[in-house]
Each structure stands twice: as C-alpha cells, then as structure tokens.
Amino acid sequence: MDFALTQAREDAAAILASAPSVLAKAAAFVTGEGPEPQIDWAKIAYLASQNVLSSGDRAFLGICAEIAGFNPDVRQPDQTFGARWDSLDGQHQSVIASVLTQSSQSKQSREREILEQLGVPSAYPTVPRPQLVRVRLGADQPAVTNDALGRERVGFREGASPHETWLRGRGVWRMQADRVIASQWLIVAHAGQVRMVGTIDGLTIHGDRIAIIGQPLPDHPFIGQPDPLDNNSQNPVAYGDMNDVA
Q1: Among residues 42, 71, 113, 181, which one has the fewest Cβ atoms lying within 10 Å of its Cβ?
Q2: How many beta carbons lie within 10 A of that of residue 111, not counting itself?
Q3: Per-residue pLDDT tens over the stretch 105-127
Q4: Does residue 89 sit in helix, strand or coil?
C-alpha cells in the first residue's frame, strides 16, 4: 500500500474514531487480531449506501469511506471526496476533519438526551470523576508553516481575546489520546497562572499530535488562579482530576 493511501486511511479512521456517536461506533467494524485492528471500510461504504440510515448518517460514513479509498461508484473515481481529499493541504484537511467531528459530536449529545428521556442506559462510557488536561503556553511566537489549525501565531499573548487564547491553547500537542478522551476540561496556563478553561468535547488527530475540540469558558472561576498542575516538567501537558485541584 502506498504512503498516500495509508495516510488517507489513517485520516479517515481518525475522523470516524473521534466522532463518538452510537452510529459511528456501531459502524466501526474491525478485522484482524494484530495490535492495530483494521476498520472494515468496505462494510462502512456498504452502510453508507443503504436507505435504512438517515441522509446525514449516510453522508458522514460515505465521506469517511471515500477518504479511505473505498468508492462504490467506480465510474467517476476522480470525483469522490477521497480523491479531492488527497489534493488538499494539511490545513484544509484539518478544517474539514474538525467540522465533521464537531457535527458528529453534536449528534452524540442529542442521542444521549434521547436515551435519557427513554430511560435507556447510556451507550457511552461514563467518567466517574471529572478529569482535566493542562497545557502550558510559552511566549508568543510565529506558528510553524502550514500550522494544523491555520494559526499565524502561537503561545500566550497579553491582551488576547478569550477565543484567541483558546485557539492557541487547544492544540496541537503530543498527548495521550485515551486520557484526553476520558477528560472533561482543558486548562490553558502561562507563567504559572490559568489563562483559559474550556470543555473537552472531542479531538482531532494531526500526525503524532492532537487538537482538542471544545468550548471556551471565559467566566470560569479558575481563570486568573495559580496553575493547579504546575510542576517542574519540561512537558507542557499534564493530567489531573478536577476534584483534587478545585
């Protein structure tokens, strides 16, 4: 398998895996017994073609399958979402992936509400205690070329708006994906002080780094307080429990 197709399938898997809806989880058929199970993209492409699903669900699964190189309509292979995906740069791929995952995470919230109203046990894993992730920003500086989030500058800037501080803090970091998924809060700190707090609603994967999807909370009482996970580590990422630091 060539590198481009391998990378495309990794991108497609990241989009599908970071969309925690019941549908996405049910559709993620895997095969193989190795350490890296393979998604059965052919089956996902088949599900995308069935009228038993809503048009939105079919579109989401179909896009994921096409990015992974599975196109039921072989008559126009150059017109698929997957073919267009390969021609995009990393910034545009990141924007599209973020939109797709945010859409599915909104669907998850609605699914959870319906399950609760029906009295059905939640199909989602519960987190027994509210976990948090802390990222520590350095000084304001230019972003790298082709920054994954399309930013021109990163790091902390005095006078930045809450939205700008959140954008600079939410990615992209080398993080433990399982711990991020299990967490509910992101703390953005600088110089030993909390500068922004936000929710963790999902994530997008960018190579070996992660960007968090969530909502900034500019009125959170932690803002302006000492960094609760301040340590001497050179690693800007730390993990903790809100109950232990509140």
Answers
A1: 113
A2: 17
A3: 666 666 666 666 666 555 454 44
A4: coil
Residue 216 one-letter amino acid: P
Tokens coding 198: 């936000």
Contact 236, 188 (CB under 8 A): no
Q: Identify the band that residue 173 occupies on the pLDDT scale cut at 50, 70 and 90.
A: very high
User: Which two three-digit tokens encode residue 199?
Assistant: 């929710």
Query: What distance in Å separates the CA atoms of residue 26 and residue 145, rounded to the nearest whole number?
Result: 38
- CA-based nearest residue to 176, from 208, 128, 213, 151: 208
CB neighbour class for 11 (10 Å; exposed up to 12, middle 13-18, buried from 19): buried
Phi-psi bin for 155: left (phi > 0), alpha (psi -120 to 50), beta? left
Residue 96: the pLDDT is 73
Provide the total of helices (H) and of strands (E) in the chain, helices listed first.
9, 10
H or E element: which one contains 163?
helix 162-169
Could you tell me the two tokens for 101?
């995952």
CA atoms within 13 A on the CB side of 169: 31
Residue 178: its pLDDT value, please? 73
Of 27, 20, 23, 24, the C-alpha closest to 43 is 27
Please write the tens of the pLDDT for every residue from 197-212.
998 877 777 877 888 8
Spatial neighbors of 36 by CB under 8 A, at least 6 apart, are none
Could you read off the pLDDT of 38-81 as tens digits, one per residue? 678 888 888 888 776 677 777 778 888 888 877 756 556 666 77
Q: What is the DSSP letter of 187?
A: E
Burial of 242 (0-12, 13-18, 19+ CB in 10 A): middle
